[in-house]
Amino acid sequence: MHEPTRRSPLIPLARVATLVAIGDLVTKQLAVLWIGALEPRATGAAIRFGVVHNDKGAFGLSIGDYTWQLSLALTLAAIALIIPVAKDLSRIDDRAPLALGLIAGGAIGNLVSLLVNRAGVVDFIALQRADGVGIVLNAADVAAYAGVAMLARTAARVVSAIRRNRESAVIEIGKQRDTALTRLADVEVQ
C-alpha cells in the first residue's frame, strides 16, 4: 500500500496569511474610524485603545531617514524566507505552516500599511505596565507574535529530530566499527 499524497504546506500557510492580512487591514481602518487618537495615560488600565501612526520600525526603533526603506526590505525578506522553510518544517511539525502563516500575514498586513500610508503603520492596542513602560500594537503584530510563540513547539521538535538523527548516526558508526574490527580480527587469524 502506498502512502497518501500530502497537501502542500503552502496552502494552509497562504490561507492563514491571507486571513490575517485582511483582518489586520480591516481592524486598522475600523480603529481609525471609531477609536481615535491614543490619549496620554489617564487610568490605571493595562490595556487601552487608541490610534498611533508608527513611522518607525518594529518596537519603535529608528535609523533616521532610512527607517522606511529598512522596514520595507526586512519585511520582504521575512516573507521571502518563510516560503522555502515551510515545506521542511511541516515534515517535522504539521502546525508549522500555520505559525508561519500568522507571521507572514502579519508581515503582509504591516507591509501594505507601510506602502499605503506614509504617516506610518496604524497601531491601536496599547499595553502598558504601571511604571509607564509599554508598547502599542495592531492585529498584525499580535498575529506575528502568536506565530513566533507557536514556532517554539516547532523548534523543540527540530532539536528532538536532530538528537534522534545524531543518536542513529552514533549507533550506525558503532556497528560499522564492530564490523571492521571483526574483519580485521579474521584477517589476523588467517
Describe this structure in words.
There is one protein chain. The chain is mainly α and 190 residues long. The protein has helices at residues 10-35, 67-92, 96-116, 139-189; strands at 47-54, 121-128, 134-137. The radius of gyration is 25 Å and the shape is elongated. The two termini are 48 Å apart.
Helix content: 55-70%
Class from helix and strand fractions = mainly alpha
**Shape estimate:** elongated
Helix count equals 4
Please state how the strands of the largest beta sheet are arranged side by side: 1-2-3
Q: β content, as a range?
A: 5-15%
Number of E-state strands: 3
The main pleated sheet reads as: 3 strands, antiparallel
Write a concise keyword list for the protein shown above.
190 residues; three-stranded antiparallel β-sheet; 4 helices; 65% helix; mainly alpha
Task: Spell out the blueprint of helices and strands.
Layout (H helix, E strand, L loop, with lengths): L9 H26 L11 E8 L12 H26 L3 H21 L4 E8 L5 E4 L1 H51 L1
Antiparallel strand pairs: 1-2, 2-3
Helix pairs in contact: 1-3, 2-3, 3-4
Describe the structure concisely:
65% of the residues lie in helices and 11% in strands. It is built from four helices and three strands. Strands 1-2-3 form a three-stranded antiparallel beta sheet.
